[in-house]
Amino acid sequence: MLFNEPHPLEVKVLTRRFEYPNAEPIGIDRFLATRGYEGFRKALGMTPEQIIDEVKKSNLRGRGGAGFPTGMKWSFVPRQSPKPKYIVVNADESEPGTCKDRIILENDPHRLIEGVLIAARAINASRGWIYIRGEYRYLIAVVDKAIEEAYQHGFLGENIQGSGWTFHLSTHSGAGAYECGEESALLNSLEGLRGNPRLKPPFPATSGAFQCPTVLNNVETYSAVPDIILNGGEWYSNLGTPKNGGTRLFCLSGHVNRPGVYELPMGFNLLRLINEVGGGVRGGRKLKAVIPGGSSCPVLKAEECDLPMDHESLAKIGSMLGSGGVVVMDETTDMVKAMFRIMKFYAHESCGWCIPCREGTAWLKKLLGRLDEGLGVSTDIDLANELARNMLGKTFCALGDAAAMPTISFVEKFRGEFEAKLKSAQAQAPVPGAQPLAVL
Amino acid sequence: MTFSPELEARFARMLRNYPPGRQKGALIPMLLYAQDETGAVTPELVQEVANRLSVKPVEVEEVIGFYSMLRRKPMGKYHVQVCTNISCLLTGGEELFEHACRKLGIGNREVTPDGQFSLEEVECMGACSWAPAVEVNYDFHHKMTPEKFDQLIDSLAKRQ
Ligand SMILES: Cc1cc2nc3c(=O)[nH]c(=O)nc-3n(C[C@H](O)[C@H](O)[C@H](O)COP(=O)(O)O)c2cc1C
Ligand code: FES
Fold first, then answer.
1. pTM value?
2. Which of A238, A266, A332, A391 has the fewest CB atoms within 10 Å around its CB?
3. Ligand 2 centroid vs A198 CA: distance in angstroms?
4. Can you tell me whether residue A251 is helix, strand or coil?
5. What are the C-alpha distances in Å from B99 to residues A118, A150, A291, A437, B96?
């Protein structure tokens, strides 16, 4: 089911088959009737180099968070290696603020399968897994059904469409761990291990799933590929900005009138996204801040939000495009509380493998918690900032950075709010032995 | 141990989904699917899964604590999960969680005395644009309000 009405400013590629409101996932018959698997049929007649070139030309960049160029990633796979090659789909979707992979899986699961098939063809893979977070159990059922249909119609299995090529695909359930969205932790989880990250290099392209060359991409990334092959990389690239091809799903949440998932061209203006597509800030209030791409991205002040949503523009002001989760905060938002809640998440989800992340998130949670409660001391603000800065770049995976970067931005950009909580606490001069406010 | 025929069929399929000799890959999904039938990851289940995947029981034990959905003690028949992460926080998720505590008369990760309901404050569940969100077992409920929450709980209570 689609949960929000589409908006006229949307450019529909990924969502072109969606109907609102529709109750059923798009089955194979309707998929085939709307040019489904045509991109894949075309890819069957192309060489791996041609497929990868087309994806390179499209300027498609990873939609999981890091924005790595997809065609380039595929080209790193050593196709001559005697080992089997694998495809892994990252459907762990757990970055706070992000709810987009879900609507692709739910509405158009065959689109993902088609994208996977094209990627598999490009690296001559023999098998793939769709790693879906455990909480998305109903979506596992939807995708399993689509996979079954694809087998029945000869798009999966042996001798696919008479090509002599064999490729198998299945779902794989996670069981509750944000860290398993990180690619190397995901691969460990896929092997039946704790989801701790791996030392890189080697990268998945050379040693991924079961130590074999692997392409690992986000759901939305694979889902863009069928239309790229069908209409050409250049066509797709032109939908976006020069270094950011195509469209992407923006998940608008928080204090907006029309929250929802909207497909917009890369480079769409953030203020327009909030005001025109999202119908403006709720209750006619003033905008205070925006998290532009999931909770790991440094927060933007309202006056920083008049900018195009592409990787370079956000990097230029010290943030990231991230996973497409745009969290809107109005003037009433308690920024200290918001940051504390975000840190509670990272402290809970740190896998404990790297000490700077395990200890850093735990201490930041304590510091931010007492600042939020009004029990902080004046050195806590700088201490939080310093602690976070000391975590940067010191861990196997980016979870430590993902916790540190928002902290630094909240503390630096909204320092006044942190100080105000100190002052109000001091003014009330807590009675010795008084119970602190309950914090859930 | 035996599971339902559907689950047995699923397990048989799952074992074929991993490269030869690497069927341990099925470990985490197998534990979760089995837990749905047994209610918790019991010592017997650990042994059973270890046997089926030809791994040592300790290899099963070591993953249980890592994954938040795997649990050693059963939760309620209806496991109510309320998200209070950022998008839900901004739209009343925290108040909703407090309301849920009062409505069910239990705290975080507790079970009602009759075993019907349990409650958990959870992290982002991918429903941010339709916040605040609640998941009961595997069913999502979007744009929740205290009133809608009460209706949901009352209708589940009647269903028992
Ligand atoms: C802590 C952490 C969590 C992540 N969670 C996800 C996730 O839930 N989904 C996702 O696609 N990528 C996630 N990523 C990014 C992946 O590591 C990886 O970059 C991505 O899946 C690659 O696919 P792409 O190139 O198509 O974006 C996460 C990264 C980190 C460090
Ligand atoms: S923040 Fe609650 S569902 Fe994402």
1. 0.96
2. A332
3. 28
4. strand
5. 48, 45, 27, 18, 5
